[in-house]
UniProtKB/TrEMBL annotation:
Keywords: Membrane, Transmembrane, Transmembrane helix. It holds the Pfam family DUF4381. The chain crosses the membrane at residues 30-49. This is DUF4381 family protein.
Amino acid sequence: MMPQPPASNGPVLRDIHLPPAPPWWPWAPGWWMLAALLLLMLVAAAWLWRRHRLLRQQRRLLLGELEMLAASHVRDGDDAALAASLHQLLRRVARRHDEAAAKQRGESWRRTLARVPVAPPVLDRLMVLEQAIYRPQAKFDVPATLAAARNWLQAAARPRAWMPPATEPGHV
């Protein structure tokens, strides 16, 4: 026996239709988040690059000023003027991180200098400047003092290198 064709009184079925392809615009929420994250990363990278460039330029200016002081000392040989200029440069840099650095003397000035991680002999060499600026015939080891100042300035030019101030004994 042969199968009978289906009755024509039923619904006419059509072939399966695929939905239309998703449009490229507007983006799905995930793409918007990815674009925002990418934009945020670009802004952060530009800010870090600019900050690094400014810090490098600042360090270059400080070391250039130190070299100018050294060249001036070679020309005129005035140890007292070199000591005063170096001391002023160190105070100016320290004042950026500690307002009290402009008025400190003795041990408090040493503690401010020690907030920058340098070796104790470097601090000892820099402390000689504080005494030399008050003497008319200041005698100190100029090359060693210039090297100590260069070492301290290179470290001090990085803001993250500065340690928090230590509390003084007797103060809360």
